[in-house]
Structures are given as C-alpha cells and as structure tokens.
Amino acid sequence: MKSRKFMFGILAITLVFAMAIVGCDDSSDVDSSLNGTWETIDSKITYIFNNGNFEMQYDDPYIKGIYKTSGDKLTITVTHYCLYNDLTGELKWYSKNEAKIAFADSYYDELYNSFTITYNIKDKTLTLYFEDGATVLTKK
C-alpha cells in the first residue's frame, strides 16, 4: 500500500512539473509570420525575428531583445545594444547594467525600454509604422 501511495505521489509531482512547463509556453503571444530576416530596399537595415526574439542590424549588429504581438501591434523590449568600446577597441553586446558600468553614463537608462508600434504583413512585405513614418522591409 505504501508503495502505491509513493508511486501516486511521484506521478502527481511529475504532472505538476509537466503542466508548469506547458503553462510557460508564451508562443501564442508571437505572430509566427514575423519569423525570418527582413531587409529595407537598400539592405542597410535588417530585422531578424525568431519566435519572440529579435535583432536589428544597421550595417552592423545594433540592438536585440524580445517581442510580443497582439492583433496588429508589435511590442519590442530592447535588452542589449551592440556598442563600440573605445577602451577595449571591441564591438560588444551590452545589457543596460553592463552599459552603465562600462560607459559610466545614465544616458543608457533611456535606451533600454519597450515600445509598441503597428505592423502589417502582406505577402513578403513587412511594414512597421513608427511615430516618424513607416519602414518597409522585404523578407529574404
């Protein structure tokens, strides 16, 4: 009898962990049609979307972070900037805290934020609507 109770206890714990893992799946907050590499016509700006993670390149890597979608709204949270460090001579990804330490400047508090924009995908064209105008990208 004790063996049976023990096995049911193990089964219950396993089910709880399994439900916790399944419950953490937030892929429903991401429009999978964004997945891929998108470029401007002149190929200077590139956005790479991959299941909730994104990177933006402006010739070189520039920013990366996470994103979510809801309807036609895209919310981007910047987690890292790729910055050139004059002291080390290297281009490196910096989190907010790393940038504040490396560059001793509170200016970086303003850069690491979330913003929401409207977007539209039609065929292989992605349009991002920013406050100062639209950016049109084509899927590679």
List keywords for this structure.
140 residues; alpha+beta; Lipocalin; eight-stranded antiparallel beta barrel; 9 strands; globular
Provide a short characterization of the protein structure.
Helix content is 24%, strand content 48%.
Describe the structure.
The protein has an eight-stranded antiparallel barrel with strand order 1-2-3-4-5-7-8-9. It is built from three helices and nine strands. Helices cover 24% and strands 48% of the residues. It is α+β, with helices and mostly antiparallel strands. A hairpin with a 2-residue loop joins strand 2 and strand 3. The N and C termini lie far apart (62 Å). It has a single domain (27-139), classed as Beta Barrel (Lipocalin), CATH 2.40.128.
Helix and strand arrangement:
Blueprint: H1 2-23, E1 36-39, E2 45-50, E3 53-58, E4 60-70, E5 73-85, E6 90-94, H2 96-103, H3 108-111, E7 114-122, E8 125-130, E9 133-139
Antiparallel strand pairs: 1-2, 1-9, 2-3, 3-4, 4-5, 5-6, 5-7, 7-8, 8-9
Q: What Rg, in angstroms, do the CA atoms define?
A: 21 Å
Write down the CATH class. Answer: Mainly Beta
Beta strands, count: 9
Roughly what fraction of the amino acids lie in strands?
over 45%
Could you tell me how far the N terminus lies from the C terminus, measured between alpha carbons in angstroms?
A: 62 Å
Q: How many domains in all? A: 1
* Secondary structural class: alpha+beta
Biggest sheet details: 8 strands, antiparallel, barrel
Mean pLDDT: 81
Q: Number of helical segments?
A: 3
Assembly state of the chains shown: single chain
Low-pLDDT runs? 1-26
Secondary-structure element order, N to C: HEEEEEEHHEEE
Rough outline: globular
Which fold name fills CATH's third level, the topology? Answer: Lipocalin
Helix content: 10-25%
Q: From the coordinates shown, what is the CATH architecture?
A: Beta Barrel
In which order are the strands of the major sheet placed? 1-2-3-4-5-7-8-9
